[in-house]
## 1
Amino acid sequence: MSFNVDVIETAVAEARAKGNGKSTKFEQSFDIAVNFRKKELDVSKPENRFNQEVVLPNRMYPPVKVCAFGDGEFADKALEAGVERVVGREEIPKIGEEKKERKLLAKTFDFFISAVDAMSLVGRYLGQALGPRGKMPRPFPPQADLSAVVDQYQRTVRIRMRNTPTFHVKVGHVRMSDREIADNIATVLGFVDSKGIIDRVGRVLVKTTMGPPVDVSIER
């Protein structure tokens, strides 16, 4: 079921205006907080917690960083698709053997992709660093359309809810229009709705990095 994007856009515009009053040396992002009523959502139960990727309709800014594991044709296609770094099969064990290096790799990149023939090496040497962060790569054959894959990652956010009945997620940037950000917010709310828990939401707030939060109405 869709949400009233016009109403959401009004909240985004208000958040932008209030955030513009803050003196910053950087361009601000937009984030939302979705807060559930504590008595209605028991997050001690695993089924009420989630850690999932959600594809938004509009690309995020700055672009997310994608790293690829593989060689040959796969590596060439990955670079053409816009990944920031390609790690060859021979390099994977070297990174994996250095704790600092594998942690830095996991921290630097938002998403990872891998050639099918590199996955076993990734799991063996880098799984300890990537797995707990939910960043294990998806495997792709050489003929895969990696441009479409990377484009999708540029529109993907990870929604995590753990020990408290709330989650925060980035939904935009000041370079994006209010409508684009509103559409992204509506998609996040649609994800919550798909979980069957939208009626347990207490408040939804949108804010710029340094600005005050603004209430978002979740009208249909």
## 2
Amino acid sequence: MSTDSDIWFAFARTFGVLFMVLALLLLVFYLLRRFLAVRAGSAGRDFIKVLTVHHLSPKEKLVLVNVLEETILIGVTPNQISKIAVMEKKVDLSLGSRGKISKETDSRFSDFLSRTLNLSSFGSKENIQDAKKVRDV
């Protein structure tokens, strides 16, 4: 009977060591991930910043992006991403309270977008909506 208990003791000791090694491995991975994330975040290398997003339809949107201090207007559809315009002067879209864009900022972006894309040549809002309907068809 002593051999039977020795086998169970060896079995328990083997699995105990296995679980300790796995726990140590998980702890090392957790610490590496945590410290590498802190180091990468402290470098301050935000080369690409999304300034604002304007949804045209559920699957189409305009995105104003700052890439290496250059402001670019990008059109995003389910099939492609297109560069529409590169802004010559720096665009200041300040955030309102709680990090959300205020209605004033949103209207300024709409006005800026209209001027940039020369949408004022379409005329009234009805004509713009008609142009959107034709484009959707």
